[in-house]
Structures are given as C-alpha cells and as structure tokens.
Description:
Strand order of the largest sheet: 1-2
Shape: elongated
Radius of gyration: 17 Å
Order of helices and strands: EEHH
Number of helices: 2
Amino acid sequence: MSVVKQDQPGAGGLLTMQNGAHAIQEGVCSERVRYMEEFLQAIRELGTLHTEQARAVIQGDPEFCRFDLLIHMANERKDHAKYAWLFHVEDHHC
Length: 94
C-alpha cells in the first residue's frame, strides 16, 4: 500500500497505510493520533473477546459466560479510550 497525500481525492484521514503500517500525515496532532490508536486497540481487544466467547458457544462450552466479566472490563476500557480521544479533540480543536 502507499501513503495517501492530503491533497489527493478521498484523502483527509489522520492516518494512511504504507506496507501495513500507519503513517502520520504532516500537520496532524500526534496526541490525537495516539488517543485514536488506543481507542482502536480497545475495539480490537473487545472484538477478540466477543469472538472467543462466540467460539466457546459454538463448541458447546458450558462455561462460555466466563467471558462476560472480561467483555465488561474491555468495554469500559474502550469507552474510556473513546472519551479520552473525544475530549482531547474538543479541548485542542485538532
């Protein structure tokens, strides 16, 4: 993949992909990017837990509920990361 420049049609995002890795575009607040990446990581972790719980249900594991507390905690981390990102953007107008 190549880096999308801001002046290209369809550009304008904070991050672009280059060889599967994120590249920060010039003029973008690095704190905003960090908060966004933390939010995205929390979403991935929550998704992984949901996938593991679904797998346990499909496999007939009678203890599939063991994921409930983990999912609850991961959801709290996701919400915390989301609001940290949103509050940063609102406070810094970036």
